[in-house]
Amino acid sequence: MNLKEKIQEISALPDGVDLIGVSPIDRFLELPEMGRPTAFLPKAKSVIVIGSQLFQVLTKKLTATRKIGEVSYRDFYNAHNETVDVALKQTGYRIARLLTNQGYASINVGHDLTDYRTITGAFSFKYAGQQAGLGVIGKNGLLLTRAFGPRVRLSAVLTEAPLPCEDVVFEDLCGGCDICYKVCPSGALKAPSADGKTDYDRFVCCSFYTANDGCGLCMSKCPL
Ligand code: SF4
Ligand code: SF4
Predict the structure, then answer these.
(1) Is the CB of 54 within 6 Å of ligand 1?
(2) Which of 73, 107, 108, 182 is the most exposed place for a label (fewest CB within 10 A)?
(3) Considering only CA atoms, which residue is closest to atom 8 of ligand 1?
(4) What is the per-residue pLDDT across 107-149, written as a single tens digit (0 to 9) for each?
(5) Are 20 and 52 in contact (CB under 8 A)?
């Protein structure tokens, strides 16, 4: 069994993850230097991205109208999210440990690397997911996967191991759909600009999200 097959075997364990893909390091060259994997692991050769589904039975019940004192589906969703993150971190750690023990320096990247002054992540899991062939970025600015739409959490492993990689997916999964920006209650998400880029104001979204103790309608209402 080669190294990549062993990584896939770890990911498929009963407490593993649903999605796995690998990107070569050169697909990150278009990012600013401080956002590239090499900013954290200078001799990195590959980025492994792993993902797990969020249960649709919970996401489809999300609202942005929680009343004070109300127990809502969001409470169950938040607990589910935390559990998925723990599973991703554990699988990422197992993969990074396997590679390290094979002589390849590796780092498992924890989920939340957000700098809350700018609400920007030091490492973009969505970008990495796209480069690793897991899906495409949709009009809602989220990674859309064929199996679970945008209902996925992601994590990553940076490694010096030169692994076989996946092809990037070039597919328009949104088509003529406009649901996500039509349902956005804050106006943070707008129709994409003429060049197809998502028009999203993270500060407006974050203010609304905080004031209403949650939202996520751009994810939960996506028909994929
Ligand atoms: S989380 Fe809510 S407010 Fe933020 S972009 Fe999505 S729909 Fe809009
Ligand atoms: S709701 Fe529609 S337009 Fe928005 S991301 Fe999903 S498929 Fe694309």
Answers:
(1) no
(2) 182
(3) 184
(4) 999 767 788 888 888 899 999 999 999 999 999 999 999 999 9
(5) no
